[in-house]
Amino acid sequence: MSRHRLLAALATLLMATVFAEPALAHAGSLGAVSRSAPVPSWLVTASGAGAVGASFLFTSLLTNRDVVERIPHLGGSVPAVGSLLGRTIPAIGSLLGQIARWSVVAALPLVVVVGVIGPDTPAANLLTLSVWVVFWAGYTATTYAVGNTWPALNPWRTLASLSPVDSRPLPERVGSWPSVVGLLALVAFEVLSPVAADPRLLAAAVVGYSLVTVAGAVAFGDAWFERVDPVARTFALYGRFAPIRRTKSGLDVGLPGAGLARESTVYDPDDVAFVVAIVWVTTFDGLVSTVAWERATAAVTAVGVSTPTVALVGLLGGFGCFLGGYWLAARAVRRTAPTYVTTRYLAGWFAPALVPIAAGYHFAHFVGYLTGFAPTIAAVAVAPLAPPSSLAVLSPPGWFGVVQLLAIVGGHVLAVWVAHARAFHLFAGRVQPIRSQYPFAAVAVWYTTVSLWIVAQPIVAGVA
Amino acid sequence: MSEPPLTPETSLPERDGDAAVCPYCRRPFVTERQRALHVGERHDATPSEERTYEDAREDESDELFRLHLKIVFAVGLLYAASVVAGVVAFSLPG
User: Fold this and answer.
1) Phi/psi at A449 (5° precision)
2) Whether B79 and A342 lie within 8 Å, measured CB to CB
3) pLDDT less than 50: residues of chain A
4) CA dist., res. A26 & res. A24, Å (int)
5) Fewest CB within 10 A of the end CB: N or C in chain A?
6) Dihedral angle at the C-alpha atoms of A250, A256, A260, A262, nearest 10 degrees?
7) Are the beta carbons of B72 and A342 separated by less than 8 Å?
8) Are A367 and A282 in contact (CB under 8 A)?
9) Residue A420: how many other CB atoms lie within 10 Å
């Protein structure tokens, strides 16, 4: 085993140097103000892609099956807080839950009304700030950083639970395709309509979404939130990544992403499409707010194509390309591993590894909004109908770009680890699991490059 | 999302009718070595299967060492490339 020890020592040394390289580059960009030569964005992109590639290479050196299988099982289980309280004082556990649940239900119409009668400026309107900053940036971040609390808090689920009507089963053959369509439709609506700039339209959209969701949940029960509602499904997927996960007996506390590495589910093609859609729409959301996208749209519209068409083609085309690329990678695994396992099974087996990429990208893109608009939200929440005329928005400090970059690279590195653990679960021996990861590593490096390029672009100012 | 069946879904190309098949779970493998490793790791192997497993593992260790050497070489290349990229980036005007 001495040669393995030698390899390990060599690897550690190289790891230290390779990872030092991007860090040096950022140190350079930090000093951009005082230096005459700032780090060009292509170097940042290349360093990020290199770091993901390096993480794949280093992960490949870890071939001790016991270690690979033990890491995702680090951590422990605790009984749920609700049931703990419930056991000692039966009323308190459920009472706390009910209070939280109904406060969200009560807050929803209040915020919508404020959105209608409040100020026109989106950055001073409580509804716009609540939907984009508090809910979509802040709350979503808690679903992957802490745990998925949405099934307990979801106000539309609470309302639908009051219905005396018995729900009917959702047809099996539609699978979870409705949620894929729903997610793409929501993002298309967000990008194509002036909903981010018009609080009245946003209020109408929230009311419309509420009506559809409550009606759907009354008709089909919880199946609606499991297979149709894109918001609940997104949170459920992020919750699988989170360090705290709900199980039948209580709560599982472990490493982030460990749940994804451990779960022995195979995603069906509709679920694979949904995971890919989440990753892609999060990226697309960032892409449309870049100056580069605005210029490209302007160039294409100059030859007579309408703006909505460009955005729709971008959204659906990008989704198609990414899904196709992922599927091709899964097919290539059959050759590189080599294995007789079907492409469909391979695509479904490795799909959970995509969730950390989406979480990392969400963090990189939205945590800036959350911290930037925090003082604005505080000021507007105190006086929602007559907010102060000058609202403070914090601009991110210079090092914030490094945090964004680390989040994206970190998401991809976790994805590589999750896929590595799943490969060891599916294949026997030590060489075959590593070989099976070549195509996915290529996809991860390529996608890091795309994501970092988007993050490095200058952004058009605005709330959403 | 469906629970995994005991063995993953597999499909064999037409010409490979004589794939190595696990005697316990009927899962087909591309090479004999894959099957031996699978039987040794996942099933209660008989003494003779245990010996085949040990041989396969030894054989795999050699291949793994060569693979790891290639990986370390790739890491070295990546490192060199990033150094060159850094030098180029910092020596560009502006």
Assistant:
1) -60, -50
2) no
3) 1-4, 6-37, 463-464
4) 5
5) N
6) -70
7) no
8) no
9) 26
Other C-beta atoms lying within 10 Å of the C-beta of residue A92: 12
> What's the pTM value of the predicted model, to 2 decimals?
0.87
Q: Which residues of A touch B8 (CB under 8 A)?
A: 266, 341-342, 345, 349, 426
| Tokens of residue A154, six digits | 């979801």
The single-letter code of the amino acid at A9 is A
The whole-angstrom separation of Cα B25 and Cα A409 is: 39
Name the one residue in this structure whose structure tokens are 């979480």: A359
- Enumerate the residues of chain A whose CB falls inside 8 A of the CB of residue B37: 428-429, 432
> Which secondary-structure segment (H or E) carries B71?
helix B47-91
Question: Which structure tokens are listed for A423?
Answer: 């490969």
The string of pLDDT tens digits covering residues A397-438 is 778 878 888 898 899 889 999 999 999 999 999 999 999 999
The first and second tokens of residue B88, run together, are 């180029």
For A363, counting Cβ atoms within 10 Å of its Cβ (0-12 exposed, 13-18 middle, 19+ buried), the class is buried
| Token couple for A68 | 């690979």
- Give the integer Cα–Cα distance in Å for A70 and A187: 39
Contact list, A427 vs chain B (CB under 8 Å):
34
Token pair for A283: 């990226």
Residue A341 to residue A201: CA distance in whole angstroms: 49
By Cβ distance, the residue of B2, B30, B83 closest to A21 is: B83
What is residue A78's three-state secondary structure?
Answer: strand
* Torsion angles phi and psi, residue B2, rounded to 5: -110, 150
Residue type for position A461: A
